[in-house]
Each structure stands twice: as C-alpha cells, then as structure tokens.
Design a protein that fits this description.
about 130 residues, mainly beta, four-stranded antiparallel sheet
C-alpha cells in the first residue's frame, strides 16, 4: 500500500505558475504509474496528467498540454506537476494518484476516468484569480 500527500497548492494570478508535489510512502514507488487529477466545485473529477513508472512516458489532457509538465523522482518518491500560464479555469482541488498497473500504450477511457488508479491523496487547492 502507498500513501500520498500533495503540497504546493495556493492562490496565484492568471498567467502565473505553481509547482505541485506529491510525496509517496513506501519502498516501491517506482512500481507505480502516477497521475494528477483535479476537481472543480460542481464539476466531475478531471484527468490532468500521467507518467509511467520510469518517467519515460507521459500523457496530458488537451486543456493543459503545453502548459503543465509532469515529472517524477523515484529516488525521492515524489511526483511533481509544474503548472505554467495558469488560467482561472485551472482552479480546482488537485489530486495525486498511484496505479499498480503500468500505463498502457494507449491511455484509454478507464484511465481518463481514474478507474485504473488504486491510491489517492487528499488533494491540494489551487486557485487562479483573474
């Protein structure tokens, strides 16, 4: 089992940047694919980004592609989300998630919905003011 703790959220003006981090417990962090999701008030949870166990493969939602970058450091048991050019519509609670299964060659709908992820963090609030 793995426990996840997000940090780095906060209030930022539109156009600004934030870097989210997710620290994972346990010695097997490198055996998990990792993802970031977000949920805005009154909306469903939304996929943001995912990274493979080794970090060699990444997937992004179209809405964040070119602005957000996901990365991981297996030696430090952390996964990060660098968010640039933030927009008010990026406002949400951001969640880190871990999947025991490897990322597939095609990131399918069940992955987008979060169904393939086994562990979730508590979330960190990101608020982007206009």
């Amino acid at each position: 089992q793995v426990q996840l703790l997000e940090s780095g959220g906060g209030l930022v003006q539109a156009g600004g940047s934030l870097r989210l981090s997710c620290a994972a417990s346990g010695r097997t962090f490198s055996s998990y694919a990792m993802g970031w999701f977000r949920q805005a008030p009154g909306k469903e949870r939304e996929f943001v980004a995912a990274i493979s166990r080794s970090g060699s493969d990444t997937y992004y939602a179209d809405s964040v592609k070119g602005r957000f970058t996901i990365s991981r450091d297996n030696a430090k048991n952390t996964v990060s989300l660098q968010m640039n050019s933030l927009k008010p519509e990026d406002t949400a609670v951001y969640y880190c998630a871990a999947a025991r299964n490897p990322l597939p060659p095609f990131y399918g709908s069940s992955w987008y919905r979060g169904e393939e992820y086994d562990y979730w963090g508590q979330g960190t609030q990101v608020t982007v003011s206009s």
